[in-house]
Predict the 3D structure of the following.
Amino acid sequence: MKKRDKIIYWVATAWLSLGLTSTAIIQVFSIQTEGAGGGQNVDHLGYPHYILPLLGLWKILAVIALLSPKRPLLKEWAYAGIFFTATGALYSHLIVGDTFGLMAPALLYLVLIAVSWYFRPAEKKLR
């Protein structure tokens, strides 16, 4: 693997992990914000508040899986789960007619997921 590819992988994975961790903290501890992951956003999209701690827990588990050494199958599941969550968020924002600004976090997650997954080292891939 080229050094450039490793740098791209780690930058994308670190940024993805930081984003997931920060929104997970907001969701698990029910911190009220106006941004992504907060209770007002859930109200706006029509989802119940009790879903937030579960989403937050899943995000924390995904970060652990992504950053743990080896375990390629677990990483694939983490990438898939994050992808499903981000596409679900994007779809929800589209359905309620939100602006691009409100969709941007989900789009950023999708880009980071794709870049991290594509540039992952060989030992982190399923064979």
Remarks:
- Residues 70 and 124 are 6 Å apart (CA to CA).
